[in-house]
Amino acid sequence: CFEKTVGLGKKNSSFLLNAILHCYTMLFVILGWVIFRSEGISNLLQYFNTMFGISKVDFINDNTILLFNENYIILIISIIASTPIYKIIGKKLCQRNIFSNYILPVCYFVLFLFSVASILKGNYNPFIYFNF
Question: Residue 104: CB partners within 8 Å, gap ≥ 6?
Answer without folding.
Answer: 94
